[in-house]
Amino acid sequence: MEMSQIRYALAAAGTLNFTKAASDCNVSQPALTRAIKALEDELGAQIFHREGRSVHVSEFGKSILPHLRQIMDQAGVTRTLAENYRLLNKAPVRLGVLSTVGHVRLARFLAAFEATYEGVELTVSEAPLAELQDLLEADEIDLAILNPAGAKADAYRLSPLYEERYVVILPPDHRLREKNAIGLADLSGESYVDRLACEMREMVMKVCAVEGVELYARFRSEREDWVQAMVSAGIGFAFAPEYSVFVPGVIQRPLVAPSVTRSIALASIPGRPYSPATQALVRSAAGFAWPG
Q: Which keywords does this chain's UniProt record carry (predicted)?
């Protein structure tokens, strides 16, 4: 039983005219007739009764045609799945990630995505917020994981992923290590490690100025690993998103009075179509069990 035979039989059943069915299938009428005859011989019964130029569906044909349609439908689904898989593998997903986003939990999501879509090539670019937005708008990345509060949020299609608190990270022997939570007033005059890449840095600095909190920056860096390493080495404390802390040994305490939180979202350009692979990543991100 060949798919072409089934297609010809279904076309003939729809038109009840072999000539018209042959034209619709882009084959000659004798070729269509031979194919249907071969199918009937294989099935052992006639699908059609031919009376001169008239064609009628037989009782057997009425019973078998729904099954033939189902075979064609399943074949179409299979072709679609195969085409989607081919397209998934055709172009990599270009993902941009805000440099302050914690990589441990993000890596768990990307590992789960790659396990589900083994053939998809994924490239990840890490950048500060302004550069990340430029890459997204220039179509040099397909998606960006960022904090929409610091971005031009109205310019993007946003899918929220998770929220996280800001914490105070302390050296292991810091005098505030015994506190369960730390307010800004507790930190006034303390040695400070400044996270220059933090998209919420200016907001935190303004709050400190309003509250009269004096911070002495003994070290400044745009790199998260250097900031946390210097805290661990005892240079001073730092503010950090709770899911971005990865250096062993530093102490985390919630920042209170005031508390500060941020949202992390998946961003793309409205109206820009997704490739099948990009669409797969968007769906996977929406269904992933993110922290918090």
A: DNA-binding, Transcription, Transcription regulation
